[in-house]
Amino acid sequence: MCSDAAISVRDLNVRRGEKLVLPGISLEIERGAVTGLLGPSGTGKTTLIRAIVGVQIVESGAVTILGEPAGSAGLRARVAYVTQAPSVYRDLTVRENLRYFARILDVPGERIAEVIETVSLGEDADREVDNLSGGQGARVSLATALLGRPEVLVLDEPTVGLDPVLRADLWRTFAGLAAEGATLLISSHVMDEAVHCDRLLLMREGDILAASSPDELLRRTGTRDMGEAFLKLIEEGRSSEAPGA
């Protein structure tokens, strides 16, 4: 494990009822990069993300962010978490939402205009969230997370249900944040989104199948796109588990 990793997960076990959802997985996420956590729905991505941000009960193992245990009080201003469901008030405008959360975070008022510009919502800043499109609503949630200038940003399926143009806009925003030094962990079940990431974690049934860059993964599997690469990894796993392999 690299001591300079932004996020480090070691031998993490998470159980729900009788089912071991995460069976002792280990991984690390480098600083200042966009890391995609990709895999089918129901494969454990959200559970892993919740463990990383410190809101998931774990059976055993260790998770550290920026050198501190996940969920530590010292991380509250350094780590931001955007859930799948919008976490803003729909009956307030974009600007009113940001004013509210800025007060909670004790963030200067001028930061509001900065994050509105970052997520490209200047023309809609005084519209109620309930009157915005799904993509715009997702950007409002992102804006609230950016208020405190987090060092680590964890986003759970931020592009789900959005059209290709809106998805592309968000990924450009993510790339810009990483270029400024932020570390981003972004989950998705859309394999095509892998091309927007610096690093990838491919996940299936609670296990990490691969951890590499998109180009490295395509070379390793000899495939042309991420969907094919994912299937190849599954086939390789089945072959290694077969009797006599």
Q: Nearest-angstrom radius of gyration?
A: 19 Å
Number of strands: 10
What is the N-to-C order of secondary-structure elements (H for helix, E for strand)?
EEEHEEEHHHEHEEEHH
| Overall SS class | alpha/beta
- Give the count of helical stretches: 7
Shape: globular
The biggest sheet amounts to: 6 strands, mixed
Please report which band the strand proportion falls in: under 5%, 5-15%, 15-25%, 25-35%, 35-45% or over 45%.
Answer: 15-25%
- Please give the oligomerization state of what you see: single chain
Helix content: 25-40%
What's the average pLDDT? 91
Distance between the termini: 29 Å
> What's the arrangement of strands in the largest beta sheet?
6-7-8-3-9-10
**Low-pLDDT residue intervals, each spanning 5 or more residues:** none
List keywords for this structure.
globular, four-stranded antiparallel sheet, six-stranded mixed sheet, single chain, 245 residues, 34% helix, 25% strand, 7 helices, alpha/beta
General description of the model:
Strands 6-7-8-3-9-10 form a 6-stranded mixed beta sheet, sandwiched between helices. A 4-stranded antiparallel beta sheet has the order 2-1-4-5, with helices on one face. Helix 6 (214-221) crosses helix 7 (226-241). The model has no long low-confidence stretch (mean pLDDT 91). Strand 7 (152-156), helix 5 and strand 8 (183-188) form a beta-alpha-beta unit. The protein has 7 helices and 10 strands. The protein is an alpha/beta fold and 245 residues long. It has helices spanning 45-53, 94-105, 110-118, 134-146, 164-179, 214-221, 226-241; strands spanning 7-16, 19-29, 34-38, 60-65, 68-69, 79-82, 152-156, 183-188, 199-204, 207-212.
